[in-house]
Amino acid sequence: MLKNNGQDVPVFGSLFADEQVLLSKLRKEPVSAQVSYRLLKDQLIDEGDARQNLATFCQTYMEPEASQLMGETMEKNAIDKSEYPQTAKVEESCVAILADLWQTPKEYKAIGTSTVGSSEACMLAGMAMKFRWRNKRKERGLSIEGRQPNLVISSGYQVCWEKFCVYWDIELREVPMDKDHLSIDVDQVLDYVDEDTIGIVGILGITYTGKFDDIEKLDKKVTEYNANHEHELVIHVDGASGAMFTPFVDPELPWDFRLKNVVSINTSGHKYGLVYPGIGWILWKDEEYLPKELIFEVSYLGGKMPTMAINFSRSASQIIGQYYNFYRFGYDGYRAIHERTQMVAKEIAKTIEETGLFEMYNKGENIPIVCYALKEDSKVKWNLYDLADRLQMRGWQVPAYPLPKDLDETIIQRIVCRGDLGKSRGIAFIDDFHQCLKELNEAHILFHENRDDTYGFTH
Ligand SMILES: *Cc1c(COP(=O)(O)O)cnc(C)c1O
């Protein structure tokens, strides 16, 4: 083995190729860049192909020009508004574009910021509701002494809402889902509300199934409530996936700032905003809905600029990537990409349904998610975990998991179609899916009664 650490040592002839790459203590001497690059890249080789990962909502493809631009702007710090004033303007422009896309009525002045993702965005939205609830009580001459604020949401919430409630000591009130209500049960929701409700969250794209809450109907209920109560209810829309999809594919659907009581919306730029992770956005319909206590000033060209993010320093390259997509695709470009993705999702759903084995929960409606369970009378000896294993052998990652609380007897499988799943990749998936079913039906399967621990099989 060659000890020489110079550029011209063949990587696999070097001492380093003979050692573990993962260290628990820094090596004393440096390693050449060439060797480091190769060995680290190799270390990550077996993580699976991100493009075949149908488990994630997160973007797995960007154009080379976008990647180049992002790579070349990594050093820009999004919080340094005076050092990078043009970058700050790019962010403002993104916020303005989203305010327009989410149909902010003219009489309002939308305000917002980029975040690391929807989770940070939801924290900010939740805090704004909490502070506003407190301020409104003060205005009414009521104290908050001994009061426990609560947040109302369907049990299909993403874990970030549980985090929000734990971190900021809010009671999470779950409106349960059942077989007939795979999104928030709007007729029940007001039963969960009281004077200490800081707001209701509507979900545009329930993570488990891709279903939409009926936000228009929710808004009507809230209007009725507000007409009869001094305590004012507001709606936040968690549009992590849907808020960058629906405006292009179903622009007539009212779920956004057109609705009277929707006061804030978050989205993940790294989901259907088509940017690599992590970038998210949170907008308030008007300054009135973002209490001043949550706004901090950073210096900006000798002056001050308001910021409301939780995080401080982070690279601005994701913001620039988001703007690249906005600028490059325009409205019609996003629409074309999303419509095509939805078409692929519907085709995948159709072939899965045609096997007759599955009960379909989502066939690519709303957002391009295909979600299904095995029919109770399907009479097959394998289960969805086995199918997930089989698909994985062909490189496809398609998770199987239980639905949330109250429905957790049902195991589902979910396919998230993304912009980079073109029609011909979609067909390749369908072919593999059929092949996997055939193999499973013919396989000698280890009998498993307990779905949780054993689901391997042998030939
Ligand atoms: C993905 C998701 C989140 C969290 O988004 P991140 O950007 O990953 O932090 C929150 N809510 C919903 C509904 C989601 O689908």
UniProtKB/TrEMBL annotation:
The entry's keywords: Decarboxylase, Lyase, Pyridoxal phosphate
GO term, biological process aspect, one: L-glutamate catabolic process
A cellular component annotation (GO) from this entry: cytosol
Database matches in SUPFAM superfamilies: PLP-dependent transferases
InterPro entries given in the database record: Glutamate_decarboxylase, PyrdxlP-dep_de-COase, PyrdxlP-dep_Trfase, PyrdxlP-dep_Trfase_major
Database matches in Gene3D superfamilies: 3.90.1150.160, 4.10.280.50, Type I PLP-dependent aspartate aminotransferase-like (Major domain)
Reactions performed catalytically: L-glutamate + H(+) = 4-aminobutanoate + CO2
UniProt GO MF annotations: aromatic-L-amino-acid decarboxylase activity; glutamate decarboxylase activity; pyridoxal phosphate binding
Pfam family, one: Pyridoxal_deC
Superkingdom, taxonomy of origin: Bacteria
Known EC number: 4.1.1.15
Broad EC category: lyase
N6-(pyridoxal phosphate)lysine found at: 271
Cofactor(s) demanded: pyridoxal 5'-phosphate
Recorded family membership: Belongs to the group II decarboxylase family.
NCBIfam families with a match to the protein in the record: Glu-decarb-GAD
Protein name: Glutamate decarboxylase
Native organism: Vagococcus carniphilus
Biological classification of the source: Bacteria, Bacillati, Bacillota, Bacilli, Lactobacillales
